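Weekly modeling sync, notes
Attendees: S.R. (lead), two postdocs, one rotation student

Agenda item 3: backlog of single-chain predictions. S.R. asked that every request posted to the team notebook include the full sequence so nobody has to chase files. The rotation student volunteered to paste the first one in as an example of the format we agreed on. Action items at the bottom.

Example entry:
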Amino acid sequence: MHYGERPIGLPDLPRVHGEPVFNGTYRHQPSEFRVTEVLGFVPEGVGSHWWVLIEKIGISTDEAQSRLAHASGVSRKDVGYAGKKDTHAVTRQWMSLPEIAQVGIGEIDGAVRVIEVTRNQRKLKIGQLAGNQFELVLHGEVVGDLEARLTAIREQGVANYFGLQRFGRHGSNLQTARRLAQRDPAGRRRLHPKDGMAASAARSAGFNAVLAARIEAKQWLSVDVDDVVSLAGRGSHFAVTTTNVEEVMTRVQAGELDPTGPMLGRDAKTGAAQAAREWPVLDTDPTLCSWLTGVFRDADRRAVRVIPKELVSDQQGSTLKLSFYCPRGAFATAVLHELGVLSESRA
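Predicted structure, as returned to the notebook:
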């Protein structure tokens, strides 16, 4: 997978803390990759929608949505969720159903079960979550100072790369985006809903390319006047000014604020100087770049760093267990990438 000539898959992207300290594999079986969705609020307990906490094993969120809908006697489109979770994993997430749904606690089938049922006033919407808690098991060998690396990750975070999941199996989403861009170079045609993942993948590829260039230039956490920064873990943005630039730099070092990278669109959300620094990288893939600025009216910004919270490790022989929390939109595999060379191994 490439953006222009630059590889944008995690194994080929630069790390911010140096050479690998742990090499091996992960996801040997679903139980060794656990994800628990954190809404950040408690459902109201009353209202016209059922909200159910489900556990799924080894299937996608879309498949779980379909199975829950069928078992509850409603249309799939009436089942809401906040975000897609890993397929080859044991994951817990909330879904919502209309009041007419027949739903209760218990197993739907061998891959999906309902573990909690409550109510809320509204349907659950995409993005309506705070983050995810991860429990992972890695298998391999320590090849450097693991404890020092874990300390650096806790204190300074990792590059907020998009993981391979965003680009589809074998980069299929990005391949679809290129086909769409070739048919409609200016991005004037309205996208079919099924092509939304392809467009998101193309945007993500450009972001990964810009972030990699920042790291290679030793400017990962650099900020300047008119740059756009975000509140750590929250996503809201503001521009740096001459009056607050020193305060911003201090808050970046403290982990309270993060510099941001581009999610392409026609209307930029940053100053001319930052856009001028990013454009030479984005324009290395003119086909995707032109298409994306047509498809998306509004550009967006994404933090270039994520600091995993509550990072706990337990190493026993060739096994390393990790537990940590990441805010919405961050990939656990980006944290693994900062440890070393880790490949997925499915039973």
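Discussion: group reviewed the output briefly. The chain is about 25% helix and 30% strand.
Action items: rotation student to repeat for the remaining queue; S.R. to check formatting next week.
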